[in-house]
Amino acid sequence: MKQIWITRAGPPEALEIKEAPDPEPKPGEARIRVEASGVNFADAMGRMGLYPDLPKLPVVPGYEIAGRIDAVGAGADPAWIGRDVLAMTRFGGYSDVVCLPLREVFVRPAGMSADIGAALPVNYLTAWQLVTVMGALKPGEKILIHSAGGGVGVAATQIARHIGAVVIGVASAWKHAELRSIGVDHLIDGAAEDLESRVLEITAGRGVELVLDPVGGESFKQSYRLLAPTGRLGMFGASALASAKSRNLAGVIRTIATMPWFTFTPLALINANKGVFGVNLLKTSDDFNLLKSWMDDLLDLWAQGVVQPKIAKTFLFDEAPLAHHYLQDRKNLGKVLLKP
After folding, report:
1. Could you report how far apart the first and last alpha carbons of the chain are, in Å?
2. Nearest to 15 by CA among 58, 50, 51
3. Looking at the predicted structure, is the pLDDT value of residue 106 above 90?
4. By the 8 A CB rule, do 67 and 33 touch?
5. Distance between CA atoms of 311 and 294, rounded to whole angstroms?
6. CA 52 to chain centre
7. How far apart are CA 244 and CA 115, in angstroms?
8. Gap between the Cα atoms of 32 and 68, Å rounded
9. If we measure between CA atoms, which residue out of 109, 116, 156 comes closest to residue 137?
10. Is residue 339 over pLDDT 90?
11. Using one digit for the tens of pLDDT, what is the confidence trace for 272-297?
12. Residue 30, class by beta-carbon neighbours within 10 Å (0-12 exposed, 13-18 middle, 19+ buried)?
């Protein structure tokens, strides 16, 4: 099999391809010939040495794959062989062969391509947890989505529009036309416009009921200020830590120092009637039954045409460093994939 390894903390060129014997599935496992693997910002942060949950280097990153089962282990139903599937991998997804417990594998619905299957798990489960489970977004409410052109941003937009909410997206100007086409009601170019004044203008001074913020640092403080009474701030990353493509200690310290350590105090939250929560899908994946219930809902919405992952670009395994450059340069509108 072919795998992409993080051999050392560093820039995208720290990714290396290595060959290894194909694994054999253990009892209760399926072996999947991978057709597409999802690329996520957490992969880049792990490569830079900034992701605390990453196993000790060297390691094969990757959280999601789609492919076809070609073998099963002892005790597993051989009828699974030949089925098209998708799955979360909890590391190891940058591989053209993966073995996983069958109970953690989802059958890919008829008509769903491997690309769409690999684009679903991380982005859409994260968005589902943010928007519906913990964000409790309701029809008519307003949601502010930072990085609206990213994979989670696109997913959250589709879910929020299905609920009947008003979507305000923050994205580079060149992404605006396409984001409007998928349902973003109001767009803000964070590099050229004053975010706070634009949000207050759009909401007639009230603010929004839900903010999704993967940036961190000062952005968390600003997002909190933009909450209306009863508003909720969902934090699901800290991309400001990765302002460069290699670990920058000064930048890390600066971002950590600007986190809202004294903003979200219990009394402040009570007095403001605001809520703050965090989402880490890797931790949520410990409860697979919970993830399965969410994925079942998402697959139903896919069948209805509500959930429609947008593929920004695909790269071959040999081009893995280019995929990470593309993602970190914010050139993507939607999902980035690797293909064996």
Report:
1. 10
2. 58
3. yes
4. yes
5. 22
6. 17
7. 29
8. 5
9. 156
10. yes
11. 999 999 999 988 888 889 999 999 99
12. buried
Query: Can you give the pLDDT at residue 183?
Result: 95
Instruction: Compute the residue count for the chain.
Output: 340
Q: Which secondary-structure segment (H or E) carries 234?
A: strand 227-235
Q: Of all helices (H) and strands (E), which one includes residue 4?
A: strand 2-6
Exposed / middle / buried, residue 262 (Cβ in 10 Å: 0-12, 13-18, 19+): exposed
Sign of torsion over alpha carbons 71, 75, 80, 84: negative
Backbone angles phi, psi at 256, to 5 degrees: -60, -40
Residue 63: pLDDT band (50, 70, 90) is very high
Q: Which residues contact 112 (CB under 8 A, 6 or more apart)?
A: 84, 86, 302
- The Cα 241–Cα 67 span in angstroms is 33
| Cα 269 → chain centroid | 27
Interstrand relation of 105-107 and 64-72 (parallel, antiparallel or unpaired): unpaired
Which percentage of the chain shows pLDDT scores above 70? Answer: 100
pTM for the whole thing? 0.95
CA within 13 Å, CB half, 244: 11
Contact yes or no for 122/38 (Cβ under 8 A): yes
DSSP symbol at 139: T
Q: Scan for tokens 């052109």, then name that residue.
A: 149
> Domains in the chain, ordered, with CATH?
2-120+309-339 (3.90.180.10), 123-281 (3.40.50.720)
Handedness of CA 152, 154, 157, 163 (dihedral sign): negative
Nearest in space to 33 (alpha carbons), one of 66, 62, 63? 66
Strand partners, 168: 144, 186
